Amino acid sequence: QMSAQLRFSDVDNFGHVNNAVYFTLFDSCKARYFMEIIGQDALEHISYVVANVNADFLAPVFYPDEIAIQTKITKLGNKSFTMVQRAINTRTGEVKCDCQEIMVAFDKHTNSAVALPDEYKRKIAAYEKDIDFGL
Question: In degrees rounded to 5, what are phi and psi of residue 121?
C-alpha cells in the first residue's frame, strides 16, 4: 500500500477528485511497485503499455482526503500481466476505486511487445506468492 498525494488542482467542478486523476495516481504507484519489487532500474530496460483497463468508481474522493493505492499483480503471462489497483481512504478504509489492467511488456527501441524477463517474473512471483501463471 502506497500513499497517494492529492493536489487541489485534482478537484473538478463537482467538488471531488476527477476520475481521470485516479489513473495518474495508479501510474505513479505502478512505477513505485516495479522499482520496489524488481529494482530501481526496472523501467529503464522494459516499458509497459496498457492493453486494457477497467475501473469501477465506487465513491467520490474529496480534497484533502488521505488516499492510498494498493497494487498487486495477479496473473503473469509470457508478454503480459494483469495488475489490480485499489484506491482507499486511509482513515476510513473505504474503497473508492477498483481498477484492473492488462499490461504488455514493450521495448520502445524496437517498438514491439517483448517477453517479460524471467528474473522479473521470479521477483514478482516471490513477492505476490499467490500469482496465477497462465494469462
Answer: -60, -45
